[in-house]
Amino acid sequence: MGWMSLRVRRIVRFNFKDRSTVSPKNTKTSATRRVRNSHSTSKPTTPLNRLRGAIGDRKNWGSIYNALDSVKNDGSSSNFDRLYQFSAMNPMAAIAIPAAKPIKKTAQIQSVPPLDTIGIYREIAWVATVLAKNSELMAKFVKLRNEYVVTLSKGHYEAAEACLDKIDKDCGLSLWTVENKISLASLSGGFERQKSYVNNILSWFYPDSSDTQLRAG
Q: Does the pTM exceed 0.70?
């Protein structure tokens, strides 16, 4: 079971790299400082202005990602709540920051690097902002997850699968449900059902290729 989950996770990460048109820089320097260091007078240099510019980009998630990085690391923590809500106007925010909106499309299930971190107090303020905006959704997820654990422990596999489907519907798609469905498929139908489910997942990311099909042996 574990190796299939690992393969799916690796493929999701590969797919994420393959689809991205702009990869956020892996650096401890914040987004605004990167702009300042470029010495370009044509680029916005404040978190709010960067965010305003990114809101209009509906094709590339990297723009909103870098703008939120600037908000988090260079903006005032007192503005986190207002600017975080503002960012949600761009649908690409759900890809750049998975916690921004529930993921409804399979192709948006991706492994996204976290925003840069500068200082524990700012990090706590940012996390508190994100959690506050998702408190009802998290409460719903915890309730459904607990139901899933109980039904699974009793061997009620159909009810457990229904719980996972409801989590996908109400809370958004995630790697967590994918991995649990892989394990559940093995428990309820053995290797063949698990293989069938994993092949179905691979077809989400590579619909025109037959090379990704898992084969026994």
A: no
